[in-house]
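Q: You know discrete backbone vocabularies at least as well as I do. I have my own habits and do not want them to colour yours. No explanation is needed for now; the record alone will do.
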Amino acid sequence: MTYMELKKKHGAELEAFPMAFAFSTEQLNEGLQKLGATKEEVAPIGGGGFIKRTDIDKFVAMFNSQNAERTEACKDAEFLTDALRYELENHEYSYTWDAEPAIDCFKGNVNIESEYFKQCLATAKKLVAANSDGGE
């Protein structure tokens, strides 16, 4: 599985999870109706989102499962290099030459101080630099 395939899979799982977002009373009422819940039966998840309190354990389990899957996938050098290349490009590395925002995406999934990670990062940087007009 590629990094993008994993991101899409995790995104689809999140999208399918019963939740709502509200930034007004009208949106709150619509979200409560969508979830079939009252204000007392929901819990905030951040960013204006909320879920049923009865779904909290399922929500946490989904994120823990996704994190474990990502950690396992990062053990494959080809996957990790592809993931780093994607995140370097996503965080405009070819303009800023600052890899830290991309590196931050992998904290908790791989030891960013390891030689393994550093080698994958170096390869990913070379791939990004080869497709840009300059760089390091």
Summary: Strands lie at 20-21, 42-46, 49-52. The chain has two domains: 8-63, 75-130. Residues 8-63 form one domain.
